[in-house]
Amino acid sequence: MRIATYNVNGVNGRLPVLLRWLEETQPHVVCLQELKAPDEKFPEEAIKAAGYDAIWHGQKSWNGVAILSRVGKPQETQRGLAGDPEDTHSRYIEAAVGGILIGGLYLPNGNPRPGPKFDYKLRWFERFAEHAQGLLDTKLPVILAGDYNVMPTELDVYKPERWTDDALFAPEIRHAFAALVSQGWTDALRHLHPAETIYTFFDYFRNAYVRNAGLRIDHLLLSPAIAPRLDSAGTDHHVRGWEKTSDHVPTWIELKD
User: Fold this and answer.
1) Is this prediction's pTM over 0.90?
2) Positions marked active-site
3) Which pLDDT score, from 0 to 100, does residue 115 have?
4) What local confidence, expressed as pLDDT, does residue 44 receive?
């Protein structure tokens, strides 16, 4: 079973790329981020024609998350996080798919730091970590997949010395991610590739993709109930080279039956 996460950077503008990738790799479940479309503009029919059922949590121009499945319609269990009734950002959606509880997330960017956006990022991370602990407490097989906007270590960023003041590499954020993982989650890519340079994001500027000057900010975290099924993990790196593609690459895991 292949489960992927992909920040599409605009689901309608990048729809040909998304459909091409789905046809080429045929993942069983996909978490999408940055739909940048309200609910009524989600391309449900095109996704269904590609063989996928979907649920989504959209927002005009910004944010937005979705879960696609070709192994049965996702049974939604939650959208949004508790703890802040004034938070209107569409950043979290959760569903049961194929016997697994899957949470799809788009964590705030947080720049500029310091400032209100960075404070919001820290608060969102705290709420997310509290929810994640609750999921662990259920002992269910859970996967939390998405764009975390965090480079956990220096191995996860090209020229880390240039990122010391950035909200994606700030000590507070790296500590928050480490604390989240220490709850009992397995960082799938790093677990299987502990010393390998793997990037999931390449800026559109300065020829970053060709120079392999990237960041690893898209992660799949596995609960103890499903981590033993982890068989392989990687990225579809070549998709970043397609015309009119996202600045992220699809990131995936494969699970043993």
Assistant:
1) yes
2) 106, 147
3) 97
4) 98
Amino acid at the residue 60? K
CB 150 within 8 A of CB 173: yes
For the chain, which domains are there?
Answer: 2-255 (3.60.10.10)
CA dist., res. 59 & res. 61, Å (int): 6
Sheet holding 29-33, edge to edge: 53-57, 65-69, 29-33, 2-7, 251-255, 230-235
Q: Are 96 and 226 in contact (CB under 8 A)?
A: no
Distance CA 144, CA 56 (A): 16
Q: What share of the chain is helix, strand, coil (3-state, %, to 5)?
A: 30, 25, 45
Q: Which of 256, 217, 173 is nearest to 6 (CA)?
A: 217
The DSSP letter of residue 50 is T
Joined together, the tokens standing for residue 38 give 């309200």
Q: Could you list the mean pLDDT of each consecutive 10-residue stretch along the chain, which spans 257 residues?
A: 98 98 98 98 98 98 98 97 96 97 98 97 98 98 98 98 96 98 98 98 96 98 98 98 98 97
